[in-house]
Amino acid sequence: MSNVTKRSARAGTTEPAWVKWTLIGIALGFMTLFLALPLAAVFTEALRKGTDVFLEALKEPDAWSAIRLTLLVAAIAVPLNLVFGVAAAWAIAKYEFRGKAFLTTLVDLPFSVSPVVSGLIYVLLFGAHGWFGPWLQAHDVKIIFAVPGIVLATIFVTFPFIARELIPLMQAQGTEEEQAAQVLGASGWQTFWHVTLPNIKWGLIYGVILCNARAMGEFGAVSVVSGHIRGQTNTMPLHVEILYNEYQSVAAFAVASLLALLALVTLVIKSFVEWQFERAEKAATNLPPEKPLAAVAAV
Predict the structure, then answer these.
(1) Diameter over CA atoms, the chain
(2) Which residues of 214-245 are buried (b: 16+ CB within 10 A; e: fewer)?
(3) Rounded distance between C-alpha atoms, residue 223 and residue 237, angstroms
């Protein structure tokens, strides 16, 4: 077998080298044109008038309020979706029950519904003229055009991310280890903490990262339910839109650059998690079958 044939076999393709480099060039060119250049433009415009103007734009009270609200909404939505994602993935992957296909479809629903439509759903439910609006007004409870509505809209658009990362992972792992833990006398919680959770921890972290990134950057659904009240219900994406519409381009790009920086940090963490997950998979293939149950057997 020639060296060219051996290299083709290792690569899994018989295409010539120029095809590979052409595809790589197209991918890199696309990423440079549509990702790298716009990202560089955001930071360039944000710093165009110097760091003093940049920092002043971030210190402005409305901008600081938008930053705090964005972090608050993410801090509420992500843990709630973490609980839901683990519960939904565990039910779908580990059990057979009537309505399982319907539950799986509901998990994917936010992917097929426009974020603007999801925001309108909450307006129809909790708005002044919605189904529960009169009762909420009578009891002085504010959901729409307030923080609770923003949190609800964010939860809706982000809840598939964790579940969708865990479902195929848990289905591939099967139920053999959980069943073995039960035979060893472990309770349901012991099985979850010592067997299920260690097996899914990297996928879980990966899903949390994606969920957090979407929660901080959500615009459509939040725009509908927020009311655009400056200093109160504007998240960072909404604040960027308001500044840009008011021709405050430097301030708009300053806040946008902070969002982009958060996205880059998320990307770095995501890459690290993927690397750790690959290492964990390689290490798991070298373990004896009884190794994952050692902790349960010791309990």
Answers:
(1) 82
(2) bbbbbbebbbbbbeeeeeebbbbbbbbbbbee
(3) 9
Share of the chain above pLDDT 90, in %: 28
CB 229, CB 145: distance < 8 Å: yes
Global pTM value: 0.81
* Beta carbons of 73 and 150 less than 8 angstroms apart: yes
Q: Is the pLDDT of residue 289 over 80?
A: no
Judged against a pLDDT cut of 70, whether residue 5 lies above it is answered with no
Positive/negative CA dihedral, 143, 144, 146, 147: positive
Distance separating alpha carbons of residues 82 and 87, to the nearest angstrom: 9
Residues 185/48, Cβ–Cβ less than 8 Å: no
Q: Look at the alpha carbons of 285, 286, 290, 296 in this order and tell me if their dihedral is positive or negative.
A: negative
- Burial class, 38, CB count within 10 angstroms (exposed 0-12 / middle 13-18 / buried 19+): exposed
Tokens of 216: 């901080």
Structure-token pair, residue 226 = 């927020």
Residue 99 has phi, psi (to 5 degrees) of 90, 10
User: 55 burial class (0-12, 13-18, 19+ CB within 10 angstroms)?
Assistant: exposed
69 is written with which tokens?
């609200």
CA pair distance 60, 104, nearest whole angstrom: 44
**Token pair for residue 189?**
């919680």
